[in-house]
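Attaching the record inline, Q. Sequence:
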Amino acid sequence: MLVENTQIADVLLITPRVFADERGFFMETWNQNVFAKKGMNFNFVQDNHSKSVKGTLRGLHYQTENTQGKLVRVTLGKVFDVAVDLRKNSPTFGKWVGAVLSDENRQMLWVPPQFAHGFYVMSEIAEFQYKCTDFYNPAAEKTIIWNDSDIGIEWPLNSEQPLLSEKDKKGVPFCDAKVF
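Structure, as predicted:
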């Protein structure tokens, strides 16, 4: 397993070892002992799986209580995945990092607690799976508007408007967001 730092120190890009042959492939997506040896000692309590069509943008979501770290990956298709640092005492507060995750590159992104998270579907369909370090708490869920100018995420939209949920359309500007 290759673990790479991103422009934000606590967000990690993980490339697992893949054993492939003419029958297909095998890869380990989570092994607590292996991850702990790499300094990633997480306790996951919930797995989630979503399926989305091309042009869907989900996010930027986070929880103010039961903050969730997320180990995210794509099992079908391709997405542009984003993490935004919401820790006001961090040197990267308000900064974002993005990575293309796909069923072809099989990379995973570690999104730490106290980060907002979102993704944009670049393929016809994408299935997105992630492990969480805490349980979903709808009463504590918050959404920052996906196109906030202060954050300035460079989404690969090709001048198209993304497909958004009603919740995501009502996201607040970063300047009004509750941060940590």
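The first strand starts at residue 2 and ends at 5. The radius of gyration is 16 Å.

More tomorrow.
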